[in-house]
Amino acid sequence: MADAAETEPPATADRVRIFDTTLRDGEQSPGASMNLSEKLEMARALAALGVDVLEAGFPIASPGDFEAVRAIAAEINGPVICALARCHERDIDRAGEAIRFAAQGRIHVFLATSAIHREHKLRMTPAQIIERAVQGVRRAKALCDDVEFSPEDAARTEIEFLCEVVEAAIEAGATTVNIPDTVGYAMPAQYAQVIRTLRERVPNIDRAVISVHCHDDLGLAVANSLAGVEAGARQVECTINGIGERAGNAALEEIVMALRTRRDYFGLETGIRTERLYPTSRLLATITGLAVQRNKAIVGRNAFAHESGIHQDGMLKERSTYEIMRPEEVGVPKTDLVLGKHSGRHALRDRVEELGFQLGEEQLNRLFDDFKALADKKKEVYDEDIIVLIEQHLDDVPAQWQLVSLHTTAGTSVLPTATVQIKRPDGEVVQDAAIGDGPVDAIFKAVERVTGVHANLREFVVRSVTQGKDAQGEVTLELEVESDDRTYRGRAASTDIIEASALAYLNAVNAIATRVQRGQVREVIGRPGAGA
Fold first, then answer.
1. pLDDT over 90 at 360, yes or no
2. Can you list the pairs that 328-331 forms with residues at least 24 positions away whose Cβ atoms lie under 8 Å?
3. Which backbone phi and psi does 384 adopt, to 5 degrees?
4. Tell me, what DSSP letter sits at residue 12?
5. In whole angstroms, what is the distance from residue 361 CA to residue 363 CA?
6. 181-219 pLDDT, tens per residue?
7. What's 120's DSSP letter?
8. Could you tell me the CATH number of the domain that includes residue 487?
9. Which of 19, 46, 18 is nearest to 287 (CA)?
C-alpha cells in the first residue's frame, strides 16, 4: 500500500478535505442499507465527484461490510479508502485487512470520551480512556501510515480532558484528529470554540489535520461544520443528501457549495467537481429509495425553482437577483420558472415565446386569465398545459355560444342528467337540461336543446395532457352534420373531463354556427330550446 502522505492532496491553509461517509455513517440511516454492487456503484460516483477520503464501511460489523470495504479498496482509485474501527485489536486488524489493497488507505479508530459515555457505556476512567486510545492508534499505525482518531461525543467532553486525549493520540501517530458532535448537541459558536481551544492548547496539534463530524439532531450539522472550518479545521466529514444516523449528518453538497459560493468569506476551496453533485444525489436517492425533500438546499427539486411572480420577473431581468448560484454549477440542467398561481404575466409571456408561439397583446391577456383560472385548480402548470391553452386561443372560431355553468348527476343507480347554462350570441343566458346514457351524453343533448345545432358525434377522445392526479384532461371530438360534407372538430382541456367535454362540444358547435353565418353551409340550426 502506498504511503498516503505521498499521494493524498495536502491539507493546506486554503484547502478543505472532503471526507465522505455516505457508505458508512450514511448507510446506518434506517432504510439506507446497500448491497455490494450498490456500494460499488456509489463508490465510483463519489470518486468521480472528487471526494478526498471515502469511508467505505465498518469491516468488523459484518462479513458483508468487510467484503464491501475490501472490494472498494481494490477497485476505486483517487480518494483515500478509509475503514472504521473501535479501539479494539480485532476491529483494527479487520479494518487493516479490508484496506490492504487500497492505493491509499486509512484506518479510522474511535473511542468515546465524554463523561456520559465513560460512566454509562464504557465504565472506564479518564486514564483508561487515554491508554486505550493510544493503544488503538499505535496498532492502527503499525498497519497503515494514515490513521485518524475520533474521540466520540467530543462536543460534550470536558475541554481539558479532550485536549489530553487529542495530544496523546497525535503523539501515538494519528495524522488526523476528528472532533465529532456525535449527537448534534453543539451550537456553532460553542463548537468553533472547541476547535480554537484545541489549536491553542494542544502542543503537537500542528502534526495532524483537525476534522469535524457533525450530526443534525438540532438542524445545525452544516452550521457547526462550517463554524469548525472557520475556526481552523481542514477536513469535513459529511454525506450525500445529509443521510445518516437519526436526523443525519452534515450534507456534503451544502458544505461544498457554501465554501464555493462564499469564497469571499471563507477564502477556502475543495477538490469537489460540483457539477456532479446533483447526479450523485439522484443516484443515492435511487439506490436507497430515500427521496430528497423538494426544498432541500442545492439538490432539492425546488432549489432552483421560482414560482412567485416578483421573483420570476427579477430572474428574467437579472439572474443574481434571486439566485446566488448557477444551477449548472451543481449539475442541475437549468433554472425552473415554475408556472403556478403566484406567477406573473412576464413569466407567462417568456414561457410562451420559449415554446415557440407569438401572441398578440389581446391574445396574451386572454391566455393569462385562463392560465390563472387553471393555476387555481392545479399545483403546477406544465408546458403541455400552456400549449393546450395557447392552441385554444389560436383557434379562429368565435365563441358565439359560451358555457356559463354545468351540473351533472350520474351513478350506478342514478339516471344520468345534465343541466347547462349557456350564453347565447345575443348575450342572453339560457338554461336547459337533458338525460342521457351517461353524463357526457346528457351534456351533449342539453347543449343541442339550447343551441338548436343537431349533429352526429363521429369521434370522442380523452387524453391526459400532463402527469399527476390533477392533470388536465384534453377532449377532442368530431361532429358531422347531414347537410355538409365535412366534419367539425372541437377541442378543450380542463382538470374536469366532464367540463372539458362540454367545452369541446361547444367549440365544435361554434365552428358549425360560424360556417352557417358565413354562408359556407346550408342552415343546420333548428329552433333553440326555450330554456328552463
1. no
2. 328/275, 329/257, 329/260, 329/274, 329/275, 330/253, 330/257, 330/274, 330/275, 330/277, 330/278, 330/298, 330/299, 331/274, 331/275, 331/276, 331/277, 331/278, 331/279
3. -60, -35
4. -
5. 5
6. 999 999 999 999 999 999 999 999 999 999 999 999 999
7. I
8. 3.30.160.270
9. 46
Instruction: Assess whether 195 and 110 both reside in one domain.
Output: yes
Q: Which of 90-99, 360-369, 372-381 has the highest mean pLDDT?
A: 90-99
What are 475's three cell numbers? 377532449
Dihedral angle over CA of 397, 401, 404, 406, nearest 10: -100
Residue 4 lies in a domain: no
Identity of the residue numbered 370? D
Residue type at 246 in one-letter notation: R
Grid coordinates belonging to 22: 455516505
Q: Is the dihedral of CA 325, 328, 331, 332 positive or negative?
A: positive
Residue carrying the nine cell digits 389581446: 362
pTM of this structure? 0.68
Closest Cα to residue 280, out of 8, 54, 15? 54
Give mean pLDDT, residues 311-335: 71
Residues 201 and 171 in one domain: yes
